[in-house]
Design goal:
The protein has 472 residues and is mainly beta. The chain has helices spanning 7-15, 332-341, 349-352, 445-448, and strands at residues 41-63, 74-76, 79-105, 108-113, 116-126, 137-139, 143-145, 148-153, 161-163, 166-168, 189-192, 196-204, 214-222, 240-250, 256-269, 290-304, 309-322, 325-327, 373-375, 378-390, 395-406, 409-410, 454-471. It has one domain.
Length: 472
């Protein structure tokens, strides 16, 4: 009578169609058309709360002929470019994300997500001293005690002051709350978000062949179903189509299931978005592509395959590369509202009023900009810890916390244009060699000119989530 050499392999194989999947939850694919399990369907819902905090700095031209240049500054001639602290930014998002997963063939799954943003709140304030008592806070005017500056003057919102006995009120890039005074009116955004459709397939599955790891490939499309965010609405959509491709692999051992996943996202502006092609020397139209890599492991301290009960701990690390592009930034709402309220003819209006390049021949030349800026490339590093319980064949519960950090990057870094005649310059209208085709229509001198650019630093993103899934 024949008997298998490794009976435990046969036992696992027989249990595979009627037990928790051997693949990690982030890699597992539900399926259909199996003899013992003709159809799989999961209905999931996730609640997430994320808190983003960051410091906003602005470039400043430092005169090194009067005071020694700071050590970490970029020195040019007798001056230096320094990043001066200006603001503290905070954003809190509460959202619910329903997800439906349909098994449509052997190890082939179709899923869709329909995010609902309950609230998206932002706040801005002047920066404090950062825990350094010798460092001044930031306010609308400069205040000194002897030779020591105890409050630095903001270039974003300078505030009124006396100049040669005359009252002046320089234009603000945007208003900032100060000592209880109201600042820029940042909307509380909420609503239906951008839906995600994803096709996932495992050409190799450890459930079917225990000698192999589980390998999953993914292709998806995020559709611009949400109302596109603009200065005059409370929408939460980004106005882009996103093509998503990814792959993941995991290999289950007795108590450990390590996994790795790679994903690439390619965004394309929708017709009704804020991302427009104005021609000539515009460098970017829409957001940059993103690539991410995650690796981690599920630790399974308890599992009962017969009762289909499983307790697992998920730990992981990851990184995301964000390519340069025109995109929404931390200051989107503030910059868009400030551009509408600023008077170019006022004191300092030529410096702080956000207007598109007047020398271009675009339809937007000289108009208030819409808040979309050229965001420099940057990296995001993240870590997470999750706990999951598959309580039965039909119910799974989970919770997760994560912490992420964005590397420092400019959020207003558009180039003035492209030199097409070999002169080494992009000439303006007052120059003899002026060529309007050299101008970048989306260049905003108030925030893109060297010495006025805005930068995000010290970013942290803390997120907590809870999820539940019903499985059939």
């Amino acid at each position: 009578m024949w008997a298998p050499r490794r009976p435990w392999l046969l036992a696992i194989g027989l249990l595979g169609t009627a037990s928790p999947a051997l693949a990690a939850e982030r890699v597992d694919v539900i399926d259909a058309a199996d003899e013992a399990d003709p159809y799989d369907f999961n209905a999931e819902v996730t609640y997430r709360r994320s808190l983003r905090r960051a410091k906003i700095t602005r470039e400043f031209n430092f005169d090194c002929t009067k005071t020694a240049c700071p050590e970490d500054s970029i020195q040019v001639g007798g001056g230096a470019l320094v990043h001066v602290k200006e603001l503290r930014y905070e954003r809190t998002i509460h959202e619910i994300v329903p997800r439906l997963r349909f098994g449509i063939w052997h190890d082939l799954e179709l899923s869709l997500e329909a995010p609902i943003v309950l609230s998206d709140d932002q706040s801005l304030r002047f920066a404090g001293n950062g825990g350094k008592k010798s460092s001044p806070v930031v306010g609308p005017t400069e205040i000194k005690q002897g030779e020591r500056v105890v409050q630095a003057e903001s270039t974003v919102a300078p505030g009124p002051r006396l100049v040669n006995g005359m009252q002046q009120d320089p234009e603000d890039l945007f208003a900032v709350p100060y000592e209880g005074e109201p600042g820029v009116d940042l909307p509380t955004r909420a609503g239906f978000g951008d839906m995600l459709f994803m096709l996932r397939w495992s050409p190799f599955a450890q459930d079917r062949d225990v000698s192999r790891a589980t390998w999953t490939v993914e292709a998806g499309w995020r559709a611009p179903t949400g109302e596109t965010m603009a200065v005059d609405n409370e929408g939460v959509g980004r106005g882009v189509h996103e093509l998503i491709v990814g792959t993941a692999i995991s290999r289950r051992y007795q108590y450990l299931d390590p996994y790795a996943r790679f994903e690439a996202v390619f965004p394309f502006p929708a017709n009704d978005s804020l991302f427009k092609d104005y021609g000539d020397s515009q460098e970017h139209v829409g957001p940059g592509a993103r690539t991410s890599f995650d690796f981690g492991a599920e630790i399974v301290p308890y599992e009962d395959r017969v009762k289909q009960i499983k307790v697992y701990i998920d730990v992981g690390l990851g990184a995301v590369y964000h390519a340069e592009g025109r995109d929404y930034s931390e200051l989107f709402d503030a910059l868009a509202r400030g551009a509408l309220e600023c008077d170019p003819a006022g004191v300092g209006g030529d410096i702080n009023c956000g207007r598109y390049a007047a020398d271009s021949r675009s339809e937007i030349a000289g108009q208030p900009h819409d808040g979309i800026t050229t965001v420099e490339q940057f990296m995001t590093f993240k870590g997470r810890l999750g706990l999951g319980v598959q309580a039965s064949k039909f119910l799974r519960l989970g919770a997760e916390v994560s912490l992420a950090h964005d590397t420092e990057h400019f959020i207003s870094s558009a180039e003035v244009g492209k030199d097409r005649d070999g002169s080494g310059l992009v000439e303006n209208k007052s120059d003899a060699n002026y060529d309007p085709a050299e101008q970048n229509p989306t260049y905003v001198p108030a925030i893109d000119a060297v010495g006025r650019r805005l930068r995000v630093e010290e970013t942290t993103v803390f997120q907590v989530g809870f999820n539940a899934a019903v499985m059939f």
